Amino acid sequence: MMSDISKLIEARNRHISKAMSIAHGSPLHIVKGEMQYLYSSDGSKYLDLVNNVSHVGHCNPVVVNAGQRQMAILNTNSRYLFEGLTDYISRLADTLPADLSVGFLLNSGSEANELAIRLARAYTGNHDIAVIEGAYHGHTGMLIELSPYKFRGPGGKGHPEPWVRVLPIPDSYRRAGNDFLLEAEMTFDRGGNVAGVLVETMLSCAGQIPLPTGYLQGLQDMTKRKGGLLIADEVQVGFGRVGTHMWAFEETGVVPDIVVMGKPIGNGHPMAAVFTTAEIASSFRGMEFFSTFGGNPVSCAIGMAVMDVLEEEELLSKALKHGSQFKNGLDELMKTHDIIGDVRGRGLFLGIELVKNRETLDPAIQEASDFVDNMRDLGVLLSTDGPMHNVIKIKPPMVISQQDIDDTLAKIDLSL
Ligand code: PMP
Hints:
Elements: H1 4-15, E1 30-34, E2 37-40, E3 45-48, H2 61-71, H3 83-94, E4 102-106, H4 109-124, E5 128-132, H5 141-145, H6 148-151, E6 164-167, H7 180-188, E7 194-200, E8 202-203, E9 209-210, H8 215-225, E10 229-233, E11 258-261, E12 272-276, H9 278-281, H10 297-312, H11 315-336, E13 340-346, E14 349-354, H12 365-377, E15 380-381, E16 383-385, E17 391-394, H13 402-415
Parallel strand pairs: 3-15, 5-6, 5-7, 7-10, 10-11
Antiparallel strand pairs: 1-2, 2-3, 4-12, 8-9, 11-12, 13-14, 14-17, 16-17
Helix pairs in contact: 2-10, 3-10, 7-8, 11-13
4'-deoxy-4'-aminopyridoxal-5'-phosphate is lined by residues 108-110, 113, 136-139, 200, 204, 233, 235-236, 262.
């Protein structure tokens, strides 16, 4: 008799495109989620260190209850007056600098980035966009063309469209000593005016890289000189993951013109948002904006519950405390494991870069993949990232405990 897993794989292969891959290694059949843990059909328990969507914990009961309650009362669209919508938008706006007072609610990070680019183009009258090498910003037609991770990756064209300017990765480990702002300036100057620069305020797909001091300010100055806006993609790093602030850009003192939110915003419910100034928000000159599901009462209730949990459970300060405990532990492991070339990040957004040689920085690609598989066998879910897939990314639900981190550090030590 075929096992459940074989049946699932067979059905998957029949009905689901090969373009949708499963996490590598032997496939996991996950049947239950509970805060920072996932459970598979064979009863194994896994610590989820990689799902930054389940921000306040898988199936967090406060969020589940809020969604269930609202689903039984009302779910329409945003064309009616409804306190849930205005209260939620105000709550998000209150976390942002005062100028970024107008919000749009959507259903995915891709939709939100699309809208941000449309706004930037409408407002500036310019077309070109700058992005950072290695970035992923979404799966729509325009965003594939704006995501070097995609257009340079398998099946991609291999080169940017003429309207896309790709700035080198400001990677202070691998590319130490480079003048990142000068490089960016040279790329900006290769063409005329731009509608904006779309940038993650800590780089995720490019390899879990914090932006160097002064870099975001420099980018904003450059884009302004070229008539463009600064668009901060906070889809991965927002909602307090960095610990010190709600938004990663806040650490820099820079105020972006547009902020894009996604993933953790609904703790798994499909939601996203774009916030900008009233002036930029009005630049469609009469053309209506409407999203059938964006900002519906159930989404607003869920988003509000996420904000409640973040606040009531003091998850920002926990992210700061647990993040530094994790990072310190990894720094310690670096002393005894030469394969760890670099440990970086802030709060609960960390990266471990594995190298074969600390002088040549030869990437330990196979070792990184084997390490992820091995850690999974030890009950810890991780994955690789970065242009060479040799960076281990760590971005767990914010409810991770001190004990989880101690156990993980011991397992990493053993595994390496
Ligand atoms: N921006 C960033 C930085 C992302 O990581 C992602 C998703 N991985 C997106 C945008 C797109 O979000 P979604 O998958 O919700 O469309």
